[in-house]
Write a structure and sequence with these properties.
The protein has 238 residues and is of the alpha+beta class. It folds into 2 domains: 1-144, no CATH class; 146-238, Sandwich (Immunoglobulin-like), CATH 2.60.40.10. It is 39% helix and 21% strand. The protein has helices at 2-24, 40-54, 64-85, 91-117, 126-131, and strands at 30-31, 136-137, 148-152, 159-163, 171-177, 184-191, 195-198, 206-215, 225-226, 233-236. Strands 5, 6, 8, 9 and 10 form a 5-stranded antiparallel beta sheet that branches. Strand 3 and strand 4 form a beta hairpin. It is flat and about 85 Å long.
Length: 238
């Protein structure tokens, strides 16, 4: 009888340890901000944000080879959406198809991100890592996509500026400041891309950046002309 009691106690302990281990190794689930049913303009903003946040992100080297094709497909979708707005025959179906292609690509990228953040060495920093990708962790509030994000580049003295996409055929004007008051053009003043990598800054110094979107004045649909400067964003260069 005593042996049976001892065995029962051992079984209870084993069950409790098993449950504790399952809780301890609970996996982080990564979530996208969008689906194929998301309205196309919002779909483009979110897909572009994922691309830009992951571009040169040192935490996720495995996804870097996938980003060039993702950008190409996002550009294609923006062109297809412009055609759909002007009622080009067949354009709406093309938009739907292209959204599916992009979504599948981002799902593949998301799987890689989820694998990486659940590694034992990363799990304690998983939420921060996921937020740096333009995605978010299930059960957490997704960070707002700011008009301008500034992150460190891959080499010392470099930064990457990221604008929230405002649509097809847009350009982005960039300026920098040492004090947030007196502004000069960035080395690359205008880009057609939503991201602008810059280098040559002294590590340890604080720099301020802001951005202004510019859309074709003769655009057939949507906003036109120059937008307003974003609020300044500062970063301490490393």
């Amino acid at each position: 009888m005593k042996n049976k009691v001892n065995q029962f106690k051992k079984n209870v302990i084993i069950i409790m340890i098993t449950i504790a281990l399952k809780i301890a190794v609970k996996k982080v689930v990564v979530v996208l901000r969008f689906t194929t049913k998301t309205k196309t303009p919002d779909f483009i903003v979110n897909a572009q944000h994922v691309h830009d946040m992951l571009l040169n992100n040192p935490e996720f080297p495995d996804v870097q080879p996938l980003l060039a094709q993702l950008q190409t497909d996002i550009n294609t979708l923006m062109g297809d959406e412009s055609k759909a707005k002007t009622k080009v025959v067949g354009a709406s179906a093309t938009v739907t198809q292209q959204k599916g292609i992009i979504y599948n690509q981002v799902e593949l990228i998301k799987a890689t991100v989820q694998k990486d953040v659940n590694l034992p060495a990363n799990i304690n920093n998983a939420v921060v890592m996921v937020n740096s990708t333009g995605m978010f962790v299930k059960g957490h509030t997704p960070p707002v996509i700011a008009p301008l994000t500034v992150k460190h580049g891959t080499i010392s003295g470099s930064v990457i500026l990221i604008a929230k996409s405002v649509g097809h055929h847009a350009a982005y004007e960039w300026a920098e400041s040492k004090d947030g008051i007196n502004w000069v053009d960035c080395t690359t003043r205008v880009t057609l891309e939503t991201h602008n990598p810059l280098s040559g800054f002294t590590p340890g110094t604080t720099w301020y950046f802001h951005m202004k979107p510019v859309l074709p004045a003769k655009a057939k649909t949507g906003p036109k002309g120059e937008g307003s400067w974003s609020n300044p964003v500062s970063i301490v260069v490393i």
